[in-house]
Design a protein that fits this description.
The chain has helices at about 10-25, 30-35, 40-55, 90-105; strands spanning about 75-80, 80-85. By secondary structure, the protein is mostly helical. Helix 1 crosses helix 3 (about 40-55).
Length: about 110
């Protein structure tokens, strides 16, 4: 006979804490869920419910010092993916790239 697991409803605070722990762990959703005895679907549900506003990229102007001989680059990291782009790349292109990375990370 299969073992039955007790299911408890998460509060928003519990879900936020779990998602923060997931982000801080650097682990994949699946590895984190297995290690913590929770379902991956639960993480995805709460990420979708709470993460939409937080996942909206915001751009802030930053003054970077000139680099010695190399073309200046900006690093963008979403989850485990790190992308380096030229500093002079059009903001619209960078915004599309970030939106695509966020969508891919949510899948």
């Amino acid at each position: 006979m299969a073992e039955s697991r007790a299911w408890t409803r998460w509060t928003e605070a519990e879900a936020r804490a779990a998602l923060a722990s997931l982000a801080a762990s650097g682990e994949s959703e699946l590895a984190f869920a297995r290690q913590n005895g929770i379902s991956r679907q639960r993480l995805r549900y709460w990420r979708g419910r709470l993460g939409r506003a937080a996942a909206t990229p915001a751009f802030v102007a930053v003054a970077l010092p000139p680099s010695a001989g190399k073309a200046p680059t900006i690093e963008i990291q979403v989850g485990e993916v790190l992308v380096r782009v030229r500093e002079n790349l059009a903001v619209e292109h960078v915004a599309r790239l970030v939106r695509a990375l966020v969508r891919a990370e949510a899948c």
